[in-house]
UniProtKB/TrEMBL annotation:
Primary site of residence: endoplasmic reticulum
Similarity remark: Belongs to the cytochrome P450 family.
Protein name: Cytochrome P450
Named cofactor requirement(s): heme
Membrane topology: Peripheral membrane protein
Cellular component terms (Gene Ontology): endoplasmic reticulum membrane
Keywords: Endoplasmic reticulum, Heme, Iron, Membrane, Metal-binding, Microsome, Monooxygenase, Oxidoreductase
Location in the cell: Endoplasmic reticulum membrane; Microsome membrane
GO terms assigned for molecular function: heme binding; iron ion binding; monooxygenase activity; oxidoreductase activity, acting on paired donors, with incorporation or reduction of molecular oxygen
Amino acid sequence: DPTDEIFAMALDASIRTNLSRKVIIDDFKDVKSITDSVGRLVILRVFKVWLHIEWLFKLIYWKELEGSIKILDRCMHFINELCEEEESGRKEGVSDTSPNTERLSGINLLDVMFENLPVVSGDHDWRDELTSMTIIASDTVVSALALTLFTLGHHPEVQEKIFAEIQEVMGDLERDVTYADTNAMTYLDQVIIENIRLHGSIVMTMRHAANDTKLASCTLPAGSRVALMLHAMGWNKERFPNPEQFQPERFSPEQK
């Protein structure tokens, strides 16, 4: 299963971006089981009406859900420890105090969090958001790349164009890929974006209207719950003609 390898790389990249750490210990090795298990349970509960009954759902699936919660708690404990070490280090003027991680250079999400701490912190702490972004980011990357590979399997002509671009940019295919290399692979970027449009990792998301919001056809009262249908946006025929077709050229510089 290539998604296991993709998930490991995506999680490593997510931790480096959010926490600026190269994690030496394997606290996150079971994270994929959380996303697999919880994702399956969510789908089951949505489509099986009898599972909407709280006590029945817990009776059947609580043991599985409890296992995922324990893994998530361990991950949150690990991130909380990093946050406490970072806070202590900042007060003492020490850049890194953890023996289990290697601090990487550059600004990361953890730095931004500490520089913009909320004045009042409710039950939903900013550390919860950091944990969610670290874990969920990995899962969405895996979905996007796995579906991209699946789509490419049906379009060998696109595979050939990607490989030609990689050869042109890299030259020596044995060397490591740099950030500049990835920025230069514009066609590959178009392929990934088009796949996300066609097979989005997130079908919809919910938001809360903090203020009265006037739209073209109506006004959303403050306090409204708003469902943003991301998948439908990508399949909008006015914006994307023939939306069911895989056409990476939609996102070429000439088309934008």
